[in-house]
C-alpha cells in the first residue's frame, strides 16, 4: 500500500471527509450536484452557425434556454459510459506546460490523475470560441459605426445642419444692411 492511500481530506463543496485517492471524483460529483441548483438561462435560443456550444435545453416552466456550455452541462447532457477497454489518452506534459509528445496509456476507468480531462479540454476550446465570437461581434459593431460615420461625413445634409458661422462674411452683410438702412432713412 502507498502512503497516500491512507490520507483523507475534506471536500471543499460539501465538507465531508473523503479519501485523497477518490477526492477528484467526489468533488466533481459534488460540484455537479450544486451546479444543477443554479440556473443559467436566457429567453433566447443561441443562433450561431454550425455546432452549438451551448446546451440550449428549453425549460417550459420558466420559458428559458439553458446557457451552460454543452460539454459542461450536468443537467441535460450526461457523460458517455466508459468501457473497460478505453485508454485515458491525456497528452503528457513536463514542467506543467511542456508537451512530451506522449500520452497516458492507463485504463480510463482507473486513471484518477487525468479524470475527465477531455471534458475540461473541450470546455477550454468552447470558451475560446465564445471569446472569439464576442470579439467578432464587437468588431462588426465598430465597423458599422465607422461606415455610418463615413456615410454622413461629407453629405449636404450634414453641411446644412452644421452650425458654422463665418464672422468675416457676416460682418460685411451686417455693414451692407446698415449702410442700406442709412441710405433709406436719409
TrEMBL record:
Which Gene Ontology cellular component terms are annotated? Set1C/COMPASS complex
Kindly list the places in or outside the cell where this protein is found, as annotated in its UniProt entry.
Nucleus
Indicate where this protein is primarily found.
Answer: nucleus
Gene Ontology MF annotations:
DNA binding; zinc ion binding
CpG binding protein C-terminal domain span: 2-160
Keywords for the protein's UniProt record, in alphabetical order? DNA-binding, Metal-binding, Nucleus, Transcription, Transcription regulation, Zinc, Zinc-finger
Fetch the PANTHER family from UniProt.
Answer: CXXC-TYPE ZINC FINGER PROTEIN 1
Q: What is the protein name given in its UniProt record?
A: CXXC-type zinc finger protein 1
Amino acid at each position: 500500500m502507498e502512503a497516500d492511500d491512507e490520507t483523507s481530506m475534506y471536500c471543499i463543496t460539501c465538507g465531508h471527509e473523503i479519501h485523497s485517492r477518490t477526492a477528484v471524483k467526489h468533488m466533481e460529483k459534488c460540484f455537479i450536484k450544486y451546479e444543477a441548483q443554479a440556473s443559467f438561462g436566457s429567453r433566447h435560443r443561441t443562433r450561431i452557425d454550425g455546432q452549438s456550444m451551448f446546451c440550449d435545453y428549453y425549460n417550459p416552466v420558466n420559458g428559458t434556454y439553458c446557457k451552460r456550455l454543452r460539454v459542461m452541462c450536468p443537467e441535460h447532457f450526461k457523460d458517455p459510459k466508459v468501457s473497460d477497454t478505453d485508454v485515458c489518452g491525456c497528452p503528457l506534459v513536463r514542467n506543467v506546460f511542456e508537451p512530451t509528445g506522449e500520452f497516458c496509456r492507463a485504463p480510463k476507468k482507473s486513471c484518477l490523475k487525468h479524470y475527465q480531462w477531455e471534458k475540461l479540454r473541450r470546455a477550454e476550446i468552447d470558451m475560446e470560441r465564445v471569446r472569439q465570437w464576442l470579439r467578432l461581434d464587437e468588431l462588426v459593431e465598430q465597423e458599422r459605426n465607422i461606415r455610418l460615420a463615413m456615410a454622413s461625413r461629407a453629405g449636404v445634409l450634414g453641411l446644412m445642419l452644421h452650425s458654422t458661422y463665418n464672422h468675416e462674411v457676416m460682418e460685411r452683410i451686417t455693414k451692407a444692411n446698415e449702410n442700406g438702412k442709412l441710405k433709406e432713412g436719409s
